[in-house]
Specification:
Blueprint (H helix, E strand, L loop, with lengths): L19 E4 L9 H17 L2 E4 L13 H12 L22 H13 L3 E4 L3 H13 L15 H9 L5 E4 L6 E6 L3 E6 L7 E3 L7 H11 L4 E5 L6 H11 L5 E5 L2 E2 L23 H6 L4 H9 L14 H7 L10 E2 L2 H14 L2 H14 L6 H11 L8 H6 L11 H4 L6 H16 L6 H15 L3 H13 L7 H8 L1 H16 L1
Parallel strand pairs: 1-2, 8-9, 10-11
Antiparallel strand pairs: 3-4, 4-7, 5-6
The chain binds one RNA strand of 76 nucleotides through helix 4, strand 6, strand 11, helix 11 and helix 17.
RNA sequence: GGCGCAUUCGUCUAGGGGUCUAGGACGCUGGCCUCUCAAGCCAGUAACAGGGGUUCAAAUCCCCUAUGCGCUACCA
């Protein structure tokens, strides 16, 4: 795999120039996990080199603007722990950080380009453009604007303006030659200018397009590195030409591999279903709601498209900051593996401090309609932590601790090779044994019940199975002795008795 | 169609010309452990897209082909 000169090797940036990078989402929808990954890489890069991570809101599309998108974005970044040094709610010396508040700036620069002969007004209607596109397609010509308005005389232009025709401002792309640039991840890229078209800079609503706004802002905000998803790569030549027209030095570019759907075919989409009819999460908030831990998702996302070495999977945030750099970013797109995320989430759940896990479980259990008390929950955590991959998995494991009674079925109660009578006798035995115990400490419970098993030469599960069902109402539960201890004498005996009664009927 | 990017186990990846009979992880399969389910441990499965070069030597460098993905808006 290629390895371009790492930024570090070009001199100690920590001394010379702190990078300024930005995440520049558009509030047209909820924060996508791919967007979150872009933000994450930018953040890691900034933190690694001690630079600034800037959040800029590219709200120049008024038709697709979504009211609650900004909140979702901000809370999503915060949930992941990606704090921004400049941007909404943080302020900063290069504001405003909402492009909708910077429209005069873009207009001014567009005027400048027109004045200097780098841009022109175009009066072509959307209808005509659509028509033109269709014809070009039919003739198998390259797509793109046919430049009809590029040759308008000053007089023609004045006439049409006088008639009140609306116009966009288009960039006057060089017709010949080539545009070359260096991508930090992909190396040198060259494209022929004849394949580039006269893209729109300013729309008829006087708002800038992405191309204009992003170039102007990156320059004005002193952005040093543009780290963004792969899908932007084809527009870099346009931006490079724009920088040239302005006489500005472009930032360094690094295009990150995009995240593909688990099948590896296409971007991640909400519409696709996973194996087992599981829902395919694509928005950050969906992962959050599904019970993934931010630190696990953070770890997982960092490792898609980037790796530290040949064996590290679980890696802390600080280690990531210490080691992250562009030279280990892979150029190829990567499929998103929900299975591996589940595994990783489980790893974090298992190693998290008990109190932390209990605290995170509390709201999840409440959402499920349970009213757990913290003491019981804390006692339960060690029993259930290795059994859950996502927070809501805990609900089924602990609900029997927080309800007054359980309702086992005779079918579950009676083991495969047992009769109803036998089962009832075993439960009775369990009742007698436990009722006579002086304490209900876990070890005492275990010692006593195991003694029964050995004494009667039973198979452990033949005895413990029915007890489990009687006491929790389920065939699958946390470890029995701990369960009995936490449930307490009163409830355990009650439930055993209830099961015995049930089997008598 | 045009333009661009990419291509190592099913998936995420290690790999910077010889140490590669290609390493790790997820998944899957089997075993151990075991009060259920898990977890853990052990073992197994499985890849350099194809073809040409360059070189004493290529997964690593170059070219072609194929395939995939992305872009092709007055969206970002």
């Amino acid at each position: 795999m290629r390895r371009y000169e790492s930024i570090k090797s070009r001199g100690d940036m920590k001394q010379e120039q702190r990078p300024r990078v930005r995440f520049a989402p558009s509030p047209t929808g909820y924060l996508h996990v791919g967007g979150a990954r872009s933000a994450l890489f930018n953040w890691l890069f900034a933190r690694h080199y001690g630079g600034q991570f800037i959040l800029r809101i590219e709200d120049t599309d008024r038709t697709r603007y979504q009211e609650d998108a900004l909140d979702d974005l901000l809370s999503g970044l915060r949930w992941l722990g990606l704090d921004w040094d400049e941007g909404p709610e943080a302020g900063g010396p290069y504001g405003p950080y909402f492009q909708s508040e910077r429209t005069d700036i873009y207009r001014r620069y567009a005027e400048q380009l027109i004045a200097e002969g780098h841009a022109y007004k175009c009066f072509c209607s959307p209808d005509r453009l659509a028509q033109m596109r269709k014809e070009r397609q039919a003739r198998k010509e390259p797509a793109g604007y046919d430049r009809r308005c590029r040759g308008l005389t000053a007089q023609q232009r004045r006439d049409r303006e006088a008639r009140g025709e609306t116009a966009v401002v288009r960039f006057k792309m060089p017709l010949e030659g080539e545009t070359r640039f260096h991508d930090q991840i992909r190396g040198d890229i060259v494209v022929q200018n004849e394949t580039l078209d006269d893209f729109v800079l300013l729309k008829t609503d006087r708002f800038p397009t992405y191309h204009l706004a992003n170039v102007v802002d990156d320059h004005l905000m002193a952005i040093t590195h543009v780290l963004r998803a792969d899908e932007w790569l084809p527009s870099v030549p346009k931006h490079v030409q724009l920088y040239a027209a302005f006489g500005w030095t472009p930032p360094l570019f690094a295009h990150l591999p995009i995240i593909l759907d688990p099948s590896g075919k296409g971007k991640m989409s909400k519409r696709k279903k996973l194996a087992g009819n599981r829902e395919a999460y694509v928005h950050l908030k969906d992962f959050r709601a599904a019970g993934y831990l931010p630190e696990a998702l953070f770890n997982f996302l960092a490792l898609i498209g980037w790796s530290y070495d040949d064996h590290t999977e679980i890696i802390t945030r600080q280690q990531l900051i210490d080691h992250f750099d562009l030279d280990q970013v892979k150029p190829s797109a990567a499929a998103f593996s929900y299975e591996k995320l589940d595994w990783m989430n489980g790893q974090y759940i298992r190693t998290m401090p008990v109190d932390d896990l209990a605290a995170r479980l509390l709201p999840v259990l409440r959402d499920a309609g349970l009213s757990p008390d913290m003491d019981t929950l804390r006692a339960l955590v060690p029993l259930i932590r290795v059994r859950i991959k996502r927070l809501p998995d805990a609900v089924d494991l602990v609900d029997s601790f927080f309800v007054p009674e359980v309702h086992p079925t005779p079918h579950d109660l009676v083991g495969k090779k047992q009769t109803v009578d036998q089962t009832r006798q075993l439960l009775d035995l369990a009742y007698q044994t436990l009722a006579s115990l002086p304490t209900f400490a876990e070890t005492d419970v275990e010692t006593a019940l195991r003694a029964v098993v050995t004494g009667r030469q039973l198979k452990p599960n033949a005895f413990f199975g029915p007890i489990r069902v009687a006491v929790t109402g389920k065939k699958v539960s946390p470890p029995l002795f701990g369960t009995i201890h936490i449930l307490g004498r009163e409830r355990v005996l009650q439930r055993l008795q209830a099961a015995i009664t049930l089997l008598q009927e």
